């Protein structure tokens, strides 16, 4: 599932490609991917200029000139592609927005969605989200207060969107590896020094992943050389049985609370 770095990468590229452009055609191939009647969607979205694209956690918000907002969540297996019918991926397209010569394709939205809201509706929909980990307001002092008296395993807390926004399965494991701490540790047992290291690792891992375009391998547009660059840089995620690049031990995989957890048995304590 796309996480903060993937969605932030999309946001940056989308603002370059479609910000200020008018939506000239809409094709909805899966009605369940939207939250209003297709006629209402067409009426409020067609011929509207995209003012800008914003990110909140794992969501993207397409702000339209008329004040309405398209809220995107790609969920498991979702991705986007910007280009033409000739070069788009050979995948099922749930929704497409045409900007004239090129089109934004929403792919794999059987679980994801592109919903339409007004400003008040967006606030209500996203009101549950925790702080953004790359914002300046997310300080070490704030993080230490957030985990004070918290219980549960570290992995579960890092992927809790009400606790911190935007971190999922991949980056929670990469953060714990970077911090040399086991993701299966109880959060209440962390020392203040370990908690501070987790905080630093959150910042460093997410910023590094964003720098390399996240881990989604499918390019966002033709000749896109950035998107997916972090996939080959993952140290533990999806590397079960491989050798740790840091200490030479084997990477282990467990299933905890229906979630995959990857970690090194040698250098994470």
TrEMBL record:
Domain of life according to the entry: Bacteria
Every FPG-type domain range: 235-269
SUPFAM superfamilies, per database record: Glucocorticoid receptor-like (DNA-binding domain), N-terminal domain of MutM-like DNA repair proteins, S13-like H2TH domain
All residue ranges annotated as the Formamidopyrimidine-DNA glycosylase catalytic domain in the record: 2-112
Keywords linked to the UniProt accession: DNA damage, DNA repair, DNA-binding, Glycosidase, Hydrolase, Lyase, Membrane, Metal-binding, Multifunctional enzyme, Transmembrane, Transmembrane helix, Zinc, Zinc-finger
Cofactor(s) needed: Zn(2+)
Alphabetical list of Pfam families matching this protein: Fapy_DNA_glyco (PF01149), H2TH (PF06831), zf-FPG_IleRS (PF06827)
GO biological process: base-excision repair
Keyword hit for Metal-binding: yes
GO molecular function annotations of the record: 8-oxo-7,8-dihydroguanine DNA N-glycosylase activity; class I DNA-(apurinic or apyrimidinic site) endonuclease activity; damaged DNA binding; double-stranded DNA binding; zinc ion binding
Residue ranges of the TM segments: 67-84
E.C. number(s) listed in UniProt: 3.2.2.23, 4.2.99.18
Reactions catalysed according to its record: 2'-deoxyribonucleotide-(2'-deoxyribose 5'-phosphate)-2'-deoxyribonucleotide-DNA = a 3'-end 2'-deoxyribonucleotide-(2,3-dehydro-2,3-deoxyribose 5'-phosphate)-DNA + a 5'-end 5'-phospho-2'-deoxyribonucleoside-DNA + H(+); Hydrolysis of DNA containing ring-opened 7-methylguanine residues, releasing 2,6-diamino-4-hydroxy-5-(N-methyl)formamidopyrimidine
PROSITE patterns given in the database record: FPG_CAT, ZF_FPG_2
Family in the record: Belongs to the FPG family.
UniProt cross-references to NCBIfam families, sorted A to Z: PRK01103.1
Listed name of the protein: Formamidopyrimidine-DNA glycosylase
Species for this entry: Peribacillus cavernae
Lineage, broadest ranks: Bacteria, Bacillati, Bacillota, Bacilli, Bacillales
